[in-house]
Amino acid sequence: MSSITELMPFVVLIPLIAGPVCVLLPGRGLPWLLATFAMTTAFIIAALVLAAVFDGGTLRYAFGDWPPPVGIEYRVDAANAFVALLITGVSAILLPWGKPLVDDEVPERQGSFYALVLIALAGLLGITLTGDVFNVFVFLEISSLATYGLIAHGRDRRALIAAFRYLIMGTVGATFLLIGIAVLYILTGSLNMLDIAERLPVGEGSRALDVGLGFIVVGLSIKLALFPLHHWLPNAYTYAPSLISALIAATATKVALYVLLRFIFDVFGPAYSFTALPLAAGLMALAIGSMFVGSWLAILQSNLKRMLAYSSVAQVGYMVLGVSLTTVSGLTASFLHLFNHGLMKAALFASAGLMVYRCGGMGMNDLRGIGRQMPWTLTAFALAGVSLVGLPPTAGFISKWYLLTAAVDAGQLWLVALVLITSLMALFYIARVVEIAWMQPRPDDAPAVEEVHWTLLLPVWVLVAANFWFGIDTRLTVGGATRAAEALSSGALP
Predict the structure, then answer these.
(1) What are the structural domain ranges in the chain?
(2) Please, which residues bridge with residue 62 across strands?
(3) Could you tell me where the DSSP H helices lie in 268-374?
(4) Main subcellular localization, coarse class (predicted)?
(5) What are the pLDDT digits (tens) for 244-296?
(6) What residues have CB less than 8 Å from 157, skipping those under 6 apart?
(7) Is 130 helix (H, G, I), strand (E, B) or coil?
């Protein structure tokens, strides 16, 4: 067993152990420092794991030296190593950025707050790395329960309602997923993903297998916030503390999409998944619905964070659209947008959080005229918005270019028009924020604001720079997405 393989579990264990320790630490500084150190260390290990996967292929770690399928294993290929790098990298950047905002929004019990942050992130990483379907459910519940508590920390009373709504929808989604996993266990007697794939009676046309696939797809679509199962997301993103909005927007739905892809391609197999049920057509219809409904509702919003939340619904549509093409190029585009959207949405929510921090409100009227007083923050928001729209030379452009190319290769030329239309809709709502902040005068009775300290701007600009860097040098993102798609499809897709 290589040294990198032995390090793999620590990507999950470090935040999982550091979380409870945060509760024991006094004051505000120590819990934050431990959380930042934990996620930075996890990021370094995740980067080493990704490099090892690129060099030598899939890594496997059996807990307690119990071989699978009897024992639990972590199995890391290009797909989940790519997602783990996103989760840890974004977290390591956002935690230093978020400290003053957390001090303002969550002035008390910060040890408990950072404990929940680390437990939520450990849950997401556990979902990503495990090769066991029941562990997917367990880690999903760990992450979800911590996230409900984090959303409830928002200082607006509506945060409690948002957390409760998310809890209800999340519980429904988890129940559907658990029923689907139970069906798989009844049919195969195994919980290991690869072992289930070998034992499934996919060639026999089992009605129970169809039901299991349906339950899993619906359950994960709720977690993914795919239209029309997205209603929990806008309030959750809007009323959560700014750090939590940025973290879950950049990571949570990405992990849900990854798990959905892992079940479709690794467990059931694409040959069965796209023939037993009209899954490709259904996913395409829901993806288009997400793109248009999310974009249209984003245009209608007068609340900055809610606008970005509905934008996330639309962006989920792009990711799922690539999957629905049932080609390697479409799957590559989905993984590429999964990674790039994490970067752009983290930058957008981080810059929006700074505006809310200074203005004291999330309404568009609160932003009038602040561009002259917070030029660095507004410029960062505008540039991240350029990536969201998909203009060159940004990571968002690369994502959409690959998605459009995949649509053309699949003979779905009409999808090109839909992607371009919804991109123009994104341009409209991003430009509206910039126009309000830069062009409109600051009201006389509005409180004066000033630019934030450079230490708050630095993480935001690192994210913005990443959006442009990966729009120019695509070796990591395109290479990682291509390897991820090939690892999942295993030659079964055209």
Answers:
(1) 278-494
(2) 73
(3) 270-276, 279-300, 304-324, 328-359
(4) membrane
(5) 999 999 999 999 999 999 999 888 888 888 877 788 899 999 999 999 999 99
(6) none
(7) strand
